[in-house]
Amino acid sequence: MASGVKPRVKVPKSAAAGETIVIKTLISHKMESGQRKDGDGNVIPRSIINRFTADFNGQNVIDVTLEPAISTNPYFQFESTVPEAGEFKFTWYDDDGSVYETAKKISVS
Amino acid sequence: MRRITTLIAVSTLAVGAATAQDSNELSIDGAPMVTEVAAPAHMENVDTIYSGWRFRSVETQSLEMDDFDNPAFVFVDKGIDLFDAVDGSEGKACASCHEDVAEFAGLRTKLPKVQDGELVTMEELVNGCRTERMGAEPWKWSGGDMTAMTALIGLQSRGMPIDVAIDGDAAPFWEKGKELYYTRVGQLDMACSNCHEDNYGVMIRADHLSQGQINGFPTYRLKNAKLNSSHGRFKGCMKNIRAEPYKEGGEKFKALELYLASRGNGLSVETPSVRN
Amino acid sequence: MQLTRRDLLVMGSVGMGATLMGALPAIASLTDDEIAKITGGADVSEGDLAITAPEIAENGNTVPIEVTAPGAVMVAIFADGNPVPNVASVKFGPMNPSRSASTRIRLAKTQNVVAIAQMEDGSFQKATSNVKVTIGGCGG
After folding, report:
1. Fold of the domain spanning A6-104
2. C9-20 pLDDT, tens per residue?
3. Which segments within C1-140 are labelled E, that is strand?
């Protein structure tokens, strides 16, 4: 696992049934592009988060393929409907095989 | 290559026609910040002081207005972990003595300050705790651990006005800092004042010159996607004017930090701010 | 990752040099090739697809963009002046009502950001936004 990788997500704690909410996500990651060279002229190998997914109660909300042109500390903001109470699950996939996950519960009022 | 560089410079000059600070108002998660206020009495050549936030593009400005959108908070989170992490021979963490980091509210507004005849910065207070109380290795001045911690501690004072002392014990340090501010150095023979007092609000190629305020440090820069210490930024400025940078944590940069902080007396602490 | 001013200059000058030599189509076609892979050569129209990006980016390292694509199942984003044009492709699940997403991207120089949306009926839409990337005078 790459060191210091830390996901952050912002999801409202509750919503009205059927309401559309805004979700923000960010993960700390250097997103090394594979385009750069070090001081000795050697290419620094690519090391990025290559996929990000968000699901609600098993249903997909967004599924993103990331390329090296995504900035350091990848950020995504998007919307989701909330038909019932449940849990959002967020997953980031690292080039090195690591998988980072976090989840947020939401209640329906 | 030189011709190409010139072409880029010319084309970007045309783009950056805007001058002077804008009139936008900054509130962070709903809390208003003072980004414009009458200059402190000691400033002879400037009537009004402005936060660097006022010189940035709308897109960069918006990154600071919401703590989730602000990428610096990745590092503040790291600072929270470090605050609770035991390190060193004494088996202590910051939290062993300081129950809640919130107790540091207000500290950032007073630093640097004189203690026992020495000018001390937040970095030195942190490393003092680490070496004397925790038995741990000191952190590097501008390293990731240090900037994460100074961002977390500085955040506790966010919204409070900068209020460093410049008289009494502090006076000789302040005078030294002021002298450095107005002293031309480097191959380009420029002083801090040439850009940040004489020409703030003007474009320097495609960049918008600010007043060089340090009320938002450590600051997250889009350029390097990490937190930057004020001394690290001073080094960058000195390299740009082709001068040999002074040492981070050295007496000169500490005195300059005090003088610059005093030029921002009255502006809100914005730590951790976002700049380009 | 830190892009130095030199990196950006070099990346920018590759494009500039190509332009001066009249080789721009070779650069542009990288993006066209990628778009063709998605569409299979089908017609691409303008529709409700929108891409929002700053007219001038203060730093090419972190440029905020948003795509909104009502009725789309997928949006692919390209930067036609980057060494590799692909930026991201976003699949929208049924839970995402507005089919919109925001992120932050790297742009090596002034260029077009291009979005291609695949709609629920299988048709394609395209939107383009030009972003001027400035090079700091005194980035420090």
Report:
1. Immunoglobulin-like (2.60.40)
2. 555 444 444 444
3. 44-45, 50-52, 56-57, 63-68, 72-79, 86-92, 100-105, 111-119, 124-133
